[in-house]
Amino acid sequence: MPIEGFNQNLIKKIASDLKIKIDQVEKVLELLSENNTVPFIARYRKEVTGALDEEQIRAISKEYEYQQNLLNRKEDVIRLISEKGKLTDELKGKILACDKLSDIEDLYRPYKEKKKTRATEAVKKGLEPLAQFLLSFPKTTDILAEALKYIDEEKGVHETQEALQGAQDIIAEMVSDNADIRKFIKKAFLREGLLKTKVKDESLDERKVYEMYYDYHEPVRKIVSHRILAVNRGENEKILRVSIDEPKEKIINFIYKNMIEDDQSVTTPYVMAACEDGYKRLIKPSIEREIRSELKDKAEEQAIKIFSENLRNLLLQPPIKGKMVLGIDPAYRTGCKFAVVNDTGKMLTKGVIYPHEKYKGEEIKDNRVNEARKIITEIIKKYNVEIVAIGNGTASRETEEFIVGVLSNLKDDISYIIVSEAGASVYSASQLAKDEFPDLNVEERSAISIARRLQDPLSELVKIDPKSIGVGQYQHDVSQSKLNDSLTFVVETTVNRVGVNVNTASQALLKYVSGCNAAVAKNIVKYRDEKGKFNNRDEMMNVPRFGAKAFEQAVGFLRIIDGNQPLDKTGIHPENYENAMLILKHLDCTLDDLGTDKLLNAINQVDKKQLMHITKLGEHTLNDILDALIAPNRDPRDDLPKPILRKGIVKLEDLKIGMELQGTVRNVVDFGAFIDCGVKEGGLVHLSKMSKAFVKHPMDIVNVGDIVTVYVENIDLLRRRLALTMIKPE
């Protein structure tokens, strides 16, 4: 049965576009209309949707919204043209067949109320009949005598040439408003157009960032996203001049073919001139803007997609659990701030050291290196530090050398790691950080954040605006609203995929939980602080403003690890606790057997069809419940490769061509990936060096956080650049 309120034609189109069933689209739209969140639908309504994931559910929502807007605009345009008495069945059919807003606007253009133009002024002067005369293509006539009839001092037509020019302006606008002509021209631009860039002001490009675009051209149909954004930025910075060369002769001939009925007519030269003017003055600038806007939209979509995927992989970096960590925020003159945090992220001590003898080649008068070495040694011993986390900002590698020197003199097996501190300063200066550590300065908060990023990247990174995390490409050149929308979706889906310990989670983390918002998150923390930790999920219903619907959406993602209901630590929704107990009873197990080999063996031997019959559960939901019973504390991040911990230091000068290295992917862009191999300079693996086979995009091979084996291909000591390859040398 069709669902009331939803357009069935739109639903069929979406199902076809996304290659899913009509019923799946209908069910998703119905669930969304009932204020269910995307993570909740994806996790707990698999039987209803056919196990669609978050991306598919979001795509259905976005596509339906776009198609609905498209339909609404079609109806508006049909109504507006009809009100003018100019709607024909043929025109209505063309409008209804459009699948792009731009196509609808092209059809509406001739009937749209225009602002003041040369053509509208000519119409006011009464020159439209003269234009129609020119378009009647008479074999012989005295054109000047005809134009003479339209001279009118009161209307501002003083001579025959003015009359003819006005008539040609009207024809030029008719050409510009012709939807078929515009459609042909746009296709010609897209298929045969050449995007060209020239240097406009070289003096503004001091670092020669845009040098390759000083005299550059590339087919419009082939130009890749990152070059589009680079060209646009160069143009915005007044360094480049950008244009599109098109097959002009082909276009002009097409216009003639559509507008010239008789090439032997005496008025033909006037109409041809009007056609050329209409193209040059009106159509070409408009189409060029449209093409470049579409190229920008396409490039933005790709850049946002890359940023979002990088962010997702960064947020899913495995936590280093149960370790005492010393976090260091490096600096020169102002000293390196440090903080020790325990295995739960609580700060135990903080301080500052001055481990650098030189700064920019100048001797620092007060040599406090030995004192710094003594302080760090004592701190490591006193707090049994197991890992040192060093921020990758200014003075990072010098601080790394210092730490390596300290660790080499200790008998304990202690490792260190360089941690990206992108956005750490943003967090440290935020109100959130001030509320968390009101008595600390910015750098001290940053040292704590660096340590916590190692312990639990997700919990720490959600405190920062995603745009400040540093895994994007041209993120400042794209639509900020679209970027925010996409990145927020990534954070929400990642947080809910991992799950949240409601007794330890920060307000910043809780607000991303399905069904929660900033107000509810604040109330959960406040309730926890006042009443103590939650003992079971039911107690969360006492939190102010945590209504029944919000609780339903959130509770499955909020975990209580050591409460009085063992199922509360799993991803099983309370609506299925009764079924979970039926399953345990059938397996001759109890809640005490959660996560044990006994339960695992029982599940491996059970007839799942029999369980489905007993519980009346679908296969997807049953499997999710069984997985949760087998591994109640499972963290999806545990399946990913752990960060590389280091004990020695490697310099660019130490490397040799062909040397094998292990590294972590720090960023993925359209043209390759940047790898941290423990060298001060991050290495680039170009797209062409990722595999012997053709690679369409770097993300087909690597993602942020991946541990990869690479080989040194080129070392540029002068420019401090490292080129790597993933193809093993012969």
Record the SSE blueprint.
Elements lengths: L7 H11 L3 H12 L4 H7 L1 H4 L4 H30 L5 H9 L3 H8 L9 H7 L3 H7 L8 H6 L11 H18 L1 H14 L1 E6 L15 E5 L5 H12 L3 E6 L2 H12 L8 H48 L9 E5 L6 E6 L5 E7 L4 E2 L2 E2 L5 H14 L4 E5 L4 H13 L6 E5 L4 H5 L2 H6 L5 H14 L1 H5 L18 H19 L1 E2 L5 H4 L7 H14 L16 H7 L3 E2 L17 H10 L10 H9 L2 H8 L3 H12 L29 E10 L2 E5 L6 E4 L20 E10 L4 E5 L5
Parallel strand pairs: 4-9, 9-10, 11-12, 15-17
Antiparallel strand pairs: 1-2, 1-3, 4-5, 5-6, 7-8, 13-14, 13-16, 14-15, 16-17
Concise structural overview:
The chain is α+β, with helices and mostly antiparallel strands and 730 residues long. It has 5 domains: 8-110, Arc Repressor Mutant, subunit A; 114-193 and 246-307, Tex N-terminal region-like; 325-471, Nucleotidyltransferase, domain 5; 528-639, Orthogonal Bundle (DNA polymerase, domain 1); 652-725, Beta Barrel (OB fold (Dihydrolipoamide Acetyltransferase, E2P)), CATH 2.40.50. It has 29 helices and 17 strands.
What does this entry look like structurally?
The mean pLDDT is 91. The chain is built from 29 helices and 17 strands. The chain folds into five domains: 8-110, RuvA domain 2-like (Arc Repressor Mutant, subunit A, Orthogonal Bundle), CATH 1.10.10.650; 114-193 and 246-307, Tex N-terminal region-like (Orthogonal Bundle); 325-471, YqgF/RNase H-like domain (Nucleotidyltransferase, domain 5, 2-Layer Sandwich), CATH 3.30.420.140; 528-639, Tex RuvX-like domain-like (DNA polymerase, domain 1, Orthogonal Bundle), CATH 1.10.150; 652-725, OB fold (Dihydrolipoamide Acetyltransferase, E2P) (Beta Barrel). The chain is globular, with a radius of gyration of 33 Å. The protein is an alpha+beta fold. A five-stranded mixed β-sheet has the order 6-5-4-9-10, sandwiched between helices. A five-stranded mixed beta barrel has the order 13-14-15-17-16. A three-stranded antiparallel β-sheet has the order 2-1-3.
